Amino acid sequence: MSEGWDELSVEVAREEAEALGARLLELGSSGLMEAPGDGRAPRQLWDEGPEPPPPATLLLTAWFRPDQRARVAAGLPTELTLRWRALTDTDWLAASQASFAPIALSERLVVAPPWDAPPGALVIEPGQGFGTGDHPTTRLAWQLVEELLEGAAPPARLLDVGCGSGILALAAARHGVAAAGIDVEAEAVAEAHLNAERNGLVAEFTTTPLAEVPGRFPLVVANLHAELILRLLPDLIARVGERLVLAGILGAERAARVDEACRAAGLVLERELRAEEWRARRWRRA
After folding, report:
1. CA angle 146–150–151, rounded 5-degree value
2. What stretch of H or E contains 104?
């Protein structure tokens, strides 16, 4: 059995955090995490308005082997309040795996991690690529896609813009759709390829910029935040052969802006869904 790890948390004034972080690394920390000391949530890409003032304090978290604890304590200023917590290797694994349970995206689609996958599930390894199925926007987007795939004239091809883990494209591929996905993150594209292999599916994933993707697709899906959707909308519409599914839109005001832009571009709203404050839309060419 492994000896495990000890987790150290220290709250310090913001101007002292850089020096303390460097000192923790010098003392042998295996990793370092920094968070606002006041517990505020990180600012998101879709947050608007002026930047809030920086927090007065920062919380630094570092990890050491248990036999390093005494040396670390002796190497830090005595006025600091050190909060230690003992971890075991099992804690890391169990905590990580427990946070990723099988999720039903619909009555016919269950997404699950490799260690807890029921028969017939789409297996997605949690990683850097967004999309394990647990976010409302993924479920909304898939519902709008699945309705088309089970309809009288399902689309033969699909383009997933911002594909992340590949979950939407791979779920479509299970229906026999020629699915492709693009993402700006090479790591996400690599994970999407691995997820395709895990499920024995064929889908094309690349980092090709949207503006350079050739041709049109009967169905284009973009599960992004509203500001990015608006920025990409001309290129999204240029790739749409028949329908466009937009998800990841937070709040009524952002949804109204996206709706206005889509209507101005000549699209017709076909279906809309909502989960809490998240909105999703399916548009079609007039």
Report:
1. 115
2. strand 103-104
Dmax (CA) for the chain in angstroms is 72
Give the residue-averaged pLDDT of 206-230.
97
Instruction: Collapse the DSSP code of 76 into the 3-class scheme (helix H, G, I; strand E, B; otherwise coil) and give the result.
Output: coil
**Domain 101-285 adopts which CATH fold?**
Rossmann fold (3.40.50)
Per-residue pLDDT tens over the stretch 41-91: 655 555 566 667 888 899 999 999 999 999 999 999 999 999 999 987 666
Q: What's at 169, amino acid-wise?
A: A
Contacts of 138 (CB under 8 A, 6+ apart): 105, 131, 167, 168, 223, 247
Q: Quick one: which H or E segment has residue 122?
A: strand 122-123
Which sequence spans correspond to the domains of the chain? 5-96, 101-285
Distance from the Cα of residue 256 to its chain's centroid:
24
Encode 70-101: b = buried (16+ Cβ within 10 Å), e = exposed: eebeeebeeeeeeeeeeeeeeeeeeeeeeebe
- The class that CATH gives domain 5-96 is alpha beta
Are 67 and 77 spatial neighbours (Cβ–Cβ below 8 Å)?
no
Tokens at 189, concatenated:
């594209």
Kindly give, in sequence order, each residue whose CB lies less than 8 Å from that of residue 133, ignoring residues fewer than 6 positions away.
Answer: 103, 105, 111, 124, 139, 167
